[in-house]
Amino acid sequence: MTTSLPSTMAAIEVTGLYVAYQRQTVLEDIHLTFPAGKWTAIVGPNGAGKSTLFHVLTGSMKPLQGSVKAFDEPIAKHRRAGRIAYMAQREAIEWDFPVSVWDTVMGGRYGHMRSDALWRRLLPARWHHARHSEAVHEALVAVNMLDLADRPIGALSGGQKKRVLLARALAQQASILLLDEPLAGVDPPSEKLILSVLRREREAGKTVIMVTHDMPGARRYVDHVVLINRFVRGTGTPEEMLSEAKLAELAVSSIEQTVNDRQIMPVASNSSGQG
Amino acid sequence: MVDSILMIEAFSDALVNGLIAALMVVVNLLPDSVSDAFQYAFMQRALLTSVLVGAICGMLSCYVVLKRWSLLGDAISHAVLPGVAIAYLLGWPFFVGAFITGALTSVGIGAIERNTRIKADAAMGLMFTASFALGVVIISKLASSTHLMHILFGNVLGVKHSALMLTFVASIIAILTVWLAYRPLLLYAFDPQQAQALGFNTQIIHYGLILLLTLTIVASLETVGIILVVAMLITPGATAHLLTDRFTIMLLISVSIGILSAVIGLWLSVVFNVASGGSIVLVAFAFFILALLFSPKQGIVPRQWRHWKMG
């Protein structure tokens, strides 16, 4: 459905968002628009609240204030419709869990299976609707992992684990892809593969939003950049936002912030210093 | 209304009798020295109860082990004691009281964790021991110490028909729930954030799983008792986790180990005239040790063997 939308439309619109862990505010007064059909990079120092923003978008954290809309409707509706896919960081997954690559990628289809007939849902996976296994098959081909489909996920290398998580997000065939550091800690061939898969998704009209520390990759591929460090520090084209001057400014903002936190809460300086 | 309840009762009665008959067919295939013990009605009731409890504990233990809920299982099992005592006092079904105190305790744990600097493990330890202490106090006022011992450690040979029916209904509910909610439960255990992103209501899944645990614990009350049920909620799942990398196979292995431990433990307890709950748990632990030593991938012996062969 998104392919026919005008490119100026907002895929996700965040208004007046405040988020806190216990008493520590991590995001303040966030107003953001993620354009539909574009590839956006979210850039910021560690602990800037980038992953927290994704936690809010995926519904696993409640904001103190503010609203999040997708295609002008409450985002929860789109989550239930399976239109928002999320690729977690590698550390967020229990790799010891007894599932195969295929089963893990099939997890991207669980939302869509709710609309299948009841009798199908009560059967083991291989008797499900063929569209689910086709989507899984396609996604595994896209990330070049089809021959490892039967392997337990614990037996994969770092780059392969990332590709499985990407495949799970692809299998969902969502309109919006949220990717939390898809390129962190992957080998160069995997990185190249992941970037080309994402480029293809964007060309197919999907909205791609990724958190990244990979500046060269971002400069080369993305359409739109958001700088975050507790507040929104800038939005615009990669040329504007990822200039040396702008990035230096962002780094300084994080040092200033740490100093401020220390002055306000000297007792908590240990924990805020790491953020 | 009354008619339909009577009909359900009659129907479940018939089902239970049918199950016992089916079990006895299997038992009678065994050598006489084994099957002789099971010719009495009380032994047959004990056998069916053990099979059911072994099966649902084995099933739930997969989730408990993978979700790292061992301590929570421990907490809930202790927390049901005052509920059982109060239900006994008021003439309610055990399950109602057990569920109320089990749920109150888990809410209390969450409240302490969120609103104070006390961490989850201390909050759990604090709440479940307090709840357990309350249960011990109430029971000591109400009933004999043998009664308390039976609740704590089980008394499967004394299982009455009504208790067997409770276990039977609880087992059916537990199995149906896991079957119907198989995928949400699996996804929630594996990756709760993904479940959120797909729009599943993880609050409902979370409390549903706690409810299921409480149900299983209450159903196991008469067999292994509330202290030892924790072992049955951890050991079969942990053993199966050592043996496979597939969740469905893990479920099957875990359920089989649960059933086998219960049946073998029951038989050994009769032969050697020892406490049934304890012997069931020890058999389950023996399975765990075997898996720990000889599991093809994870076992100590195959690993050492590969190590030695590699030089």
Automatic annotation (TrEMBL), chain B:
Biological process, per Gene Ontology: cellular response to iron ion; iron ion transport; response to zinc ion; transmembrane transport
Where does the protein principally reside?
Answer: membrane
Q: Which UniProt keywords apply?
A: Ion transport, Iron, Iron transport, Membrane, Transmembrane, Transmembrane helix, Transport
Task: Give the location in the cell.
Answer: Cell membrane; Membrane
User: Gene3D superfamilies recorded for this chain?
Assistant: ABC transporter involved in vitamin B12 uptake, BtuC
Segments spanning the bilayer are: 14-34, 46-66, 86-112, 124-143, 163-186, 198-218, 224-243, 250-268, 274-294
Q: Which domain of life is it from?
A: Bacteria
Q: How does it sit in the membrane?
A: Multi-pass membrane protein
User: Entry's CDD domains?
Assistant: TM_ABC_iron-siderophores_like (cd06550)
Gene Ontology cellular-component terms listed: ATP-binding cassette (ABC) transporter complex
Database matches in InterPro entries: ABC_BtuC-like, ABC_TroCD
List the signal peptide residues. none
Q: Which family does it belong to?
A: Belongs to the ABC-3 integral membrane protein family.
Q: What is this protein called?
A: Zinc ABC transporter, inner membrane permease protein ZnuB
